[in-house]
Specification:
The chain has 219 residues and is an alpha+beta fold. The chain has a single domain, classed as CD59 (Ribbon). The protein is 19% helix and 48% strand. It has two helices and 15 strands. Strands 2, 3, 5, 6, 7, 8, 9, 10, 11, 12, 13, 14 and 15 form a 13-stranded antiparallel β-sheet that branches. Strand 5 (48-59) and strand 6 (62-74) form a beta hairpin. The longest helix has 21 residues, at 2-22.
Length: 219
């Protein structure tokens, strides 16, 4: 009889361990789309966390389109980027992720810089053609990469918008594939080498050219 007590104890330990490890905590998240939020927080699945997504599409410094979203998301990956295309069209995107109850209550704050950073990129924008004629654009803040972006918007299953643009962007905006903007627009991006347009760089280039010219005179 005493020999049977050991297996029984082991069985009890195994059952207890199974109960402990099978209990997975869930979180509640704010649930909003655009300006409409549910009355009570949403209880997420056991594998989900909370997310906040905020986007602004501006023209000449005036916001004319925005998108806000909160909710539950499995495998949430944070992403933040901004870009300035031709015709002073700017876009800002920020997705934040968290793993605590109602941790997504607040929307992120955008603080776009207007201070030039010495980088210059070709910039243009078109909603009719797959190309456009670029003009030099002085980049600002952390936008130190030259970006090329194509976008396709859909509505009711049909294409409603196609655009192409070039300009300045943060490095995090480079090489994006099928990122959804404004709820229904898919974009793809690629970046090229930026041109340093700072006075110091221009002065250095001028000095080199002057040196080459003088060298030719003495040869």
């Amino acid at each position: 009889m005493p020999r049977l007590s050991v297996p029984r104890r082991l069985l009890c330990v195994c059952v207890l361990a199974t109960c402990v490890f099978s209990t997975v905590e869930t979180v509640t998240c704010e649930d909003c789309l655009l300006e409409t939020c549910t009355q009570t927080p949403k209880t997420c699945e056991s594998t989900d966390g909370c997310f906040t997504n905020m986007q602004f599409w501006n023209k000449s410094g005036t916001a004319f389109a925005g998108f806000k979203e909160k909710g539950c998301l499995s495998g949430c990956v944070p992403l933040s980027f901004s870009a300035t295309l031709g015709e002073q069209r700017t876009f800002e995107y920020k997705r934040q992720c968290c793993q605590a109850d109602r941790c997504n209550q607040n929307f992120p704050v955008f603080q776009k810089s207007s201070v030039t950073n010495g980088v210059e990129c070709p910039a243009c924008y078109s909603e009719k053609e797959s190309s456009c004629v670029p003009a030099p654009l002085k980049c600002t803040g952390p936008e130190k990469s030259c970006v090329e972006v194509t976008g396709t918007g859909t509505k009711d299953g049909e294409t409603s918008l196609e655009f192409f643009g070039k300009g300045c962007a943060t490095e995090s905006a480079c090489n994006l594939e099928d990122v959804t903007l404004m709820g229904s627009t898919q974009i793809r991006t690629s970046c090229s080498r930026a041109v340093d347009a700072s006075p110091r760089q221009a002065s250095t280039i001028s000095s080199v050219l002057a040196g080459v010219f003088l060298l030719k005179l003495f040869i």
